[in-house]
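Hey, can you fold this one?
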Amino acid sequence: TLSPLLCLLSFSPSPYLLSLLYSFFHLSFLFSFSFSTNKKPRKSPAEKATGGAKGRKANGVPQTNGEGGDPVTLFEVVRMGKSAMQSVVDDWIESYKQDRDIALLDLINFFIQCSGCKGITMFRNMQNAEIIRKMTEEFDEDSGDYPLTMPGPLWKKFRYNFCEFICVLIRQCQYSIIYDEYLMDTVISLLTGLSDSQVRAFRHTSTLAAMKLMTALVNVALNLSIHQDNTQRQYEAERNKMAGKRANEKLELLLQKRKELQENQDEIENMMNSIFKGIFVHRYRDAIAEIRAICIEEIGVWMKMYSDAFLNDSYLKYVGWTLHDRQGEVRLKCLKALQNLYTNRELFPKLELFTNRFKDRIVSMTLDKEYDVAVEAIRLITLILQGSEDALSNEDCENVYHLVYSAHRPVAVAAGEFLHRKLFSRHDPQAEEELAKRRGRSSPNGNLLRMLVLFFLESELHEHAAYLVDSLWESSQELLKDWECMTELLLEEPVQGEEVLSDRQESSLIEVMVCTIRQAAEAHPPVGRGTGKRVLTAKERKTQIDDKNKLTEHFIMALPMLLSKYQADSEKVANLLQIPMFFDLDVYSAGRMEKHLDALLKQIRLVVEKHIETDVLEACSKTYSILCSEEYTIMNRVDIARSQLIDEITDRFTHSVEDLLQEAEEADDDDIYNVLSTLKRLTAFHNAHDLTRWDLFGSCYRLLKAGIEQGAMPEQIAVQALQCSHYSILWQLVKITEGTPSKEDLVALRRVVKSFLAVCQQCLSNVNTPVKEQAFMLLCDLLMVFSHQLVSGGREGLEALVFNPDSTLQNELLTFILDHVFIDQDDENQSMEGDEEDEANKIEALHKRRNLLAAFSKLIIYDIVDMPAAADIFKHYMKYYNDYGDIIKETLSKTRQSDKILCAKTLILSLQQVLTHPLHTHTDTPRHHTGTRAHTFGLDQIKTREAFAFKYQNPHGAEFPPPNLAFLEVLSEFSSKLLRQDKKTVHSYLEKFMSESMSERREDVWLPLISYRNSLLTGGEDGDRMSVTSGASSKTSSIRSKKGRTPIHKSKRIEEESSVEASWLRGNDSLQTPGALTTPQLTSTVLRENPRQAADTHLPDHDSEPGSENDYMQMSWLGQQKMEDSRKDRTAMNYMKARNQTVRQTVRGLMEDDAEPIFEDVMMSSRGQLEDMNEEFEDTMVIDLPPSRNRRERAELRPDFFDSAAMIEDESVSRTHTQPCSGKPV
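Sure. Predicted structure:
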């Protein structure tokens, strides 16, 4: 069948006719192979020789010969991947040399099978559009899977084998076969046609194949270019020889070889032009992101591989435009392609114009909503910085600097790398080391550390030093671990040429130094960075141990000196005292450094005596606790020093308390200060140390009783006394639980706890708010500790210590919450704008109120306080949702899990309170609360059945409305949580007391009853739906006739048709419908539509009149006989629809995430930007040389796809599955 066409091509007298017939032959031959299940592929010569039987296909996947049989087609060989790709290609080339028609048929079958088709069917005498349409109709799109997207390890490897096969095929054919004007023409035409299909599988597979084919051709072109250069040099060298030594035969051979290479180069470039124009310029803006990503990834490979031909503005502009793609994976491919280019500094001159044009976009992508894209954008900016210091402005750099404080660690680490390259990398290390030696410094990093401190101060994020250190840890470890240089800057006087560190700079340097010590010792990022502690590798573990030993050996000697210099500065001392937490304390004894330990203890003692700040005292207490660990030999030495210190402080405290109580109201400021200072120190130490042997509870209790009786105790003393007493009780409980307590011990502790709870309860009425808040928190904590859970876990002997709060205490706790938590902030404070300190105070006050509410909520959750007390909290849910919504919601969820019925009754109680005593806000209506309460019970109706199957009684007669009838409007929101049988039960009970006169009442007072009845009928099989009207419309309304539930799909169609009708009623201005349009022919830019969907979405003709057949079809769901009644019922139901819509929106809003969505413009804003780009870039789309004779005519017929006008015109055709090149939002 091929011979007549071949003969016709051989004897064609016209080159143009030759090209035209040749093209027609190829396309007809190629696309005459689509797939069905009743045909089998032809055998190759090798298969004929072996006589192997062909396997059939099942569900589009070819089968092999029996179980474990050898693959029988090229597709199967590549899919299995058991043979080396080199040998597979060599076998195919051998088959091609024997019979190129059959071998080419196998290759065509390979590409079409890779696209997911099922079999082979011959199509003869068909035009291209008909062939493509037929293949599309034959393709099974039900599954949606094809080889490139199928799951499983075999298919994941198939993609790699598929790409490798194409590359190896071109590499093996590059010297002869690809120039025969048969193989490549056929393959390129096939891939071009498939890439223009409306079927995703065809476009995806053919685009991937074409791009890999183009990459292989680019490699061939590069080799040809190298050979041409070598041949030219040889020719020039031979020609420049003297006439007697010149070899003319060699010159002729070189000329012939150069001519042959030039012809091959022309052929390769024409092939690349065909692929680029016919496939790339269409598919790089395809609607499928994966196809766009393939194109961008491969063009990056071309520009890097053959930069002389491809690295110019004509190709770079495609990458630049695609930086605005709306899909993160495509933007990611663009950035990675550019990274490969900017890595080579020799290419920077060719990238200069691109950098200037798209630099702003790349910088803005550092804030991309996709973290992976942001990371790669920062890395690209770093490469640009390495290549050219002047490419980035100060503003560009500042946009990257602040990302070192990002909570996403990869982004922060990438920004840290950029910061290191820009500010902290030494340009001339040798010269800087010599300068440091001349100044007497052991390290040349002094200036870099000063710069780091300045950067930290200028960033104005002083509480995030740990984040800054973590960001720089991977890139600047040498600088951050230079603790010797840091201590030199802090301890030694500046030498000539160095500036003195200011007080702020010293504080910042100490903070950064402590953070570097923590990072080195713990070897994991700070809180908020990362998902948790990961397992360290052996190398990382060794590095951690070495760093810990290094910092311990250094700071064992340096820390006492630092404390001695800065002992008067509380901020610096509090930071320095964190360093011993990261010591390897065995070094003290192993290295015989006890004298340094004594020096450290001496400095800590001096700090305790000088400071009364809470953070400093807690740091000292924690340091003593770490040094007193029993596992270290230094414990005895530290314990003696600690005991001496506590003895002295306790003695001073006891005498000060006696003096204060004796003088009573006549006490002066010195007496108050002495008590307060010693009590603060003891409270801080009692938190981490067991000080029960000093019996601090007695003195504190005396202070509290005196304050209650006299009412003149300073609030700070009262707060500290409450806290110290609390610690004393807890340490006593620890002793009892760890040992075998006697009955006397239990009675003594119970007496102490009871007296302290009574004091705290009395403090709730104190005039000082801090005292009341402290007493409330301690009450809640102690009630939790000494609750019924104390005896769990086999500790029944502690039953005597269990305390259950009486109703009086519960009421006082609840009253405290209502008075001090659910309050509005001062209007004057809210009106103050720009006052950061005031804003911080308001945030701190809110945090304190949240802690108070959380403490009380825990008592409710663990059944310490009766659950009905939660009703007063639940009723504030909507009003204070922004402040306490998460706490109340969690409390609601936990109480529901413990007791569903009691929780439901508590909810009803809270709703009754809202109904009878509203909170006077426009959003705090009963219906607003109801939707939220119903949502908290989840979707499992069986689990929540008991909580909602209530039965309500009407205490009044049938002719009068019940007193709380309006509450049924609230209960209607809970009807959806009932099972169908429970709905029937409640409905039948409702029907018992509903008389016929009630059913006919339409006054506003009866509307909640109608609403509740309808909510019970929703979801049932049958039922009477009451029409709900109010006021004047009640006379014309009537009860609807019984009918079945409207199907869901029909109700959706009703809503759609109603919206269409409404738009027609609004007039022609709101909806313009064109006249009769002809169905467009299927092209590459029109997706195949389902005929049913097309019929459903077809709008009526503009000329259609009311009552026409179209209108009748739209209204057929109502029935012509009820059309008038339907209009009335629709008006009557507007009341319920409008009222329920508000509630549903509120419930839906509570179900969604509270976080605000992130919007980012990832596409270019207008077509004008595209035109501006084209003015800047020289539009040289053709690859160097003109097309060869067999493609010149076809190339001339194609439009210039690089031209912006052609692209814009093409948009009108390509809106269905093609994304606009200009980057306009789609």
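The mean pLDDT is 75. Let me know if you want another pass with a different chain boundary.
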